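Can anyone check this?
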Amino acid sequence: MHALEGLPLANFGQRALGYWIDLLFAVLLWAPVEWGWRHFVLHEQVINMKFDFHEAGNIVIAVIYLGLGNYWGNGQTPGKWIARTRAVSLTNERMGRWQSIERALGYGAAVLEGGLGFLQFFWDRNRMCAQDRLAETIVVDVRRRSKELSTSPAEGYPGSAG
């Protein structure tokens, strides 16, 4: 695929940073929605909230955030943007709706495996984790490409002054 040319795979630190930032953003979106639901709809007087993957509302918010983030950002959620990574489809030029949802659900699979789904990074040749396998994606480091594009196109050509 043309989109993968010259892009190295992201390292584990970049991927972990992007994941934790996305998880933080998902919690920041979830908290006011959850509080409002409990206060205004359920009329709870004492509201005890916790974000875990055992409650349906928490899962729905995480899948919506990660699914829409991957789809709208073509594999680059806000967390991946900060970490300078991008999930790239191995089957299409652009991540589709269902592929984005599969990737979001794959995070749940990685967590349900006791974190082993994330650790697959270390023994897979293409550094694929559970969510990558499920959605048929890889995660690339976009820093290298941006550095290459920032150099002057005239540099290195015969007769250029650069």
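Reply from J.R.: I decoded it. DSSP finds seven helices and two strands in the chain.
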